[in-house]
Amino acid sequence: MESGFNGSVRKDQTKFSIGQFMKLIKTTQPKYLLLAMGVLLLVVSSGVQIYVPKLASSLVNHFSKGIDYGLLGKVFALFVISAIVSAIGGTVLGIFGENVIQNLRKSLWQKLTTLKVSYFDTVKAGEISSRLVNDTAQVKQLLAVTFPQTLASIITVIGTVYMMFKMDWHMTVAMVVAVPIVVILMMPIMAFGTKIGHIRQEAMAQFNGISSETLSEIRLVKTSNAEKQAQVRANNEINKLFKVGKKEAVFDATMQPIMMMVFMSMVFGLLAYGMHRIAIGEMQIGILMSFLMYLFNLIGAVPVIATLFSEMAKAAGSTRRVQELLAEKPEDFTKGIELDLAGKTLSVEHVDFAYEDAPDDPILKDVSFTAKPNEVIAFAGPSGGGKSTIFSLLERFYAPTSGSHISHVLNIVHSNF
Ligand SMILES: Nc1ncnc2c1ncn2[C@@H]1O[C@H](COP(=O)(O)OP(=O)(O)OP(=O)(O)O)[C@@H](O)[C@H]1O
Ligand SMILES: [Mg+2]
């Protein structure tokens, strides 16, 4: 049941914590009134769904004495009302969820733009955009879709089973046994489908990564005569995609008939049992019809409840990743002094620098130079020698590290800016 959500979300070991989840939701200042309204409407719609089959059964039971048009009208009216109420409820929750995701994305984006350059060295752009796009969607999905639908489904199941027991307990037992068996049979099939989907997404991402990397560095590929390697590398990925695609094709083609077979067997079994009870005079025909309607209620509701935990597991990782990003320390924009640079000499003295991810591998060691206004200076050195790094330091994307000259250097670099 990947309802309307098709982003890729990596699973991790994070346990779902309702406290953490609600803490995150609170930061988006959600419109609780919309949430309450949406949930209420879904609950009302569940109530109607529980009540209609009972009404329909009286209608059918009276057929031998003619058609009760009043009752017939009522049944149809309730169908319409249930559909409308459910549609409005879904819309309200949808808008509520979109509002949450909007605020979440805005605060993530605002945070991102204020982070230090070094953050973007350590976290890949793809990872960040996945948080912005997929993780936020997962959080919204749980709050605005899974939770309300699960609540409505639980009410549907409890109400349906209660009504069924009141009507005919023999049939109820048959159904309460049959439906979970069918759902349990279906679960591994569906889980397998989801797994294949994930493998395909991963293979796709890998192929995407390799091809765009190669294409963006095509000049480098050409100058180093690496066309062959580039071909082999991408070919491997394309072959992997083919393998996954084959599996997916088999799965797609067989799943539908298997599901149909299992479902039809169940419906047939229950109908046959009901007919038998009618034939021996233990049950009225109207009851059988309402049981058929209740069957649809249960078939719709049970999988929603069954997938609650996997949805929560998915949202747990997303919640943590979004929270981590929101907790990153932004750059201090108020620190430092404003200086007019015009006509000033830029001097750098005894600067040592190593990137955070390789602190033992200093890129700059004891670098000193001065640049007077209008003076032309050239930085020469091998690729990877640290030329661009010097400019990153001058732009103050990074601060000089280690060495006894640090404060001294900072002062000098500082006061000349
Ligand atoms: N953001 C970073 N994080 C970690 N290491 C980095 C980072 N940027 C550069 N390096 C490493 O620092 C070293 C110096 O890189 P830099 O880009 O300053 O060299 P360069 O002299 O500008 O090279 P080129 O002539 O190829 O432009 C290289 O070994 C590079 O791998
Ligand atoms: Mg460079």
Automatic annotation (TrEMBL):
GO molecular function: ABC-type oligopeptide transporter activity; ATP binding; ATP hydrolysis activity
Lineage top rank: taxon: Bacteria
Transmembrane regions: 32-52, 72-96, 142-165, 171-192, 249-273, 285-310
Compartments where located: Cell membrane
Pfam families, alphabetized: ABC_membrane, ABC_tran
Membrane topology: Multi-pass membrane protein
Chief location: membrane
Residue ranges constituting the ABC transmembrane type-1 domain according to the UniProt record: 36-314
Keywords: ATP-binding, Membrane, Nucleotide-binding, Transmembrane, Transmembrane helix
GO cellular component, one term: plasma membrane
PANTHER family per the UniProt record, alphabetical: ATP-BINDING CASSETTE SUB-FAMILY B MEMBER 10, MITOCHONDRIAL (PTHR43394:SF1), ATP-DEPENDENT PERMEASE MDL1, MITOCHONDRIAL (PTHR43394)
Stated name of the protein: ATP-binding cassette, subfamily B, AbcA/BmrA
